[in-house]
Write a structure and sequence with these properties.
The complex is a heterodimer of chains A (154) and B (83). With 154 residues, chain A is an alpha/beta fold. Helix content of chain A is 50%, strand content 11%. Chain A has a single domain, classed as 5'-nuclease (Rossmann fold, 3-Layer(aba) Sandwich), CATH 3.40.50. Chain B has one domain. In chain B, helix 2 packs antiparallel against helix 3. Classes of the chains: A alpha/beta (154), B mainly alpha (83). At the A-B interface, helix 5 and helix 7 of A face helix 2 and helix 4 of B.
Chain lengths: 154, 83
């Protein structure tokens, strides 16, 4: 049973490679209101309405992190509900580790989708490459290929 | 894409007041530099070169950043395979 809370990063990045529906590979998805408002400031991806999620309030009091409001809200919810934080931001990942919150990102979602039979391994590999070439995800080309080789070896 | 590139080259050349050929030369240099960094980091990640060699070729910051990225990607792949 995977309970996960997403900040805007994986929602935007997965949407950019037409793979937002794969977020439903987690068993229960939470999206903080603050994150949803951030998405609304641009445009909420239409594909988000094809997956099930729960909009939740967050209490960031005393969290003591220097992150964007959406990332802070997502970390607060993940910490409060013992959920997995889904973020593609390296600083948010560090903050999650500091708060003993399990944290993963878009690449983890693609691999999980492959493991759970939603994607062929080869399709997951192609989407990992697309994350690198078509989105603002942090990874360099060499690192993506390293991740794909780990997936291939499994 | 080709149209985008042409228009961007024209706009940059106009904004900077230098010939389009010079913009293209700079773009080629930057592109080759990026590809070179990718190659070096790929060789380091694949253990074809050691850390000090990679640092000498592309700088400590890039190597440290790549190490952080590798850790994150390995962690995500492991989770995806086992969750």
């Amino acid at each position: 049973m995977i309970l996960a809370v997403a900040d805007a990063g994986p929602i935007i990045h997965l949407d950019e490679i037409d793979a937002l529906a794969l977020l439903s590979v987690v068993d229960e998805l939470l999206i903080p209101q603050t994150v949803y408002q951030e998405l609304e400031a641009g445009m909420v991806p239409p594909a988000l309405e094809t997956i099930e999620y729960e909009l939740v309030e967050s209490d960031t009091t005393g969290l003591g992190v220097e992150l964007d409001p959406g990332e802070t809200a997502a970390l607060a919810v993940a910490s409060e509900r013992a959920a997995v934080l889904l973020t593609d931001d390296l600083a948010a990942r560090d903050a999650a580790n500091d708060h003993d919150v399990e944290v993963h990102g878009s690449i983890g979602i693609l691999v999980l989708a492959s493991t759970r039979g939603e994607l062929e391994k080869s399709a997951a590999a192609e989407l990992m490459r697309a994350l690198q070439t078509e989105t603002s995800l942090f990874v360099t080309d060499a690192v993506v290929e390293h991740g794909i080789s780990l997936l291939d070896e499994s | 894409m080709a149209t985008d590139l042409t228009e961007r080259v024209q706009e940059i050349a106009e904004a900077r007041g230098i010939p389009e050929s010079e913009i293209l030369e700079q773009a080629l240099e930057r592109g080759v530099e990026d590809l070179w960094v990718d190659l070096v980091l790929s060789r380091y990640i694949d253990d074809d070169i050691d850390r000090e060699t990679a640092i000498n070729l592309v700088g400590r910051d890039r190597v440290k950043r790549a190490e952080q990225e590798v850790q994150v990607v390995e962690d995500d792949v492991r989770w995806g395979l086992n969750a």
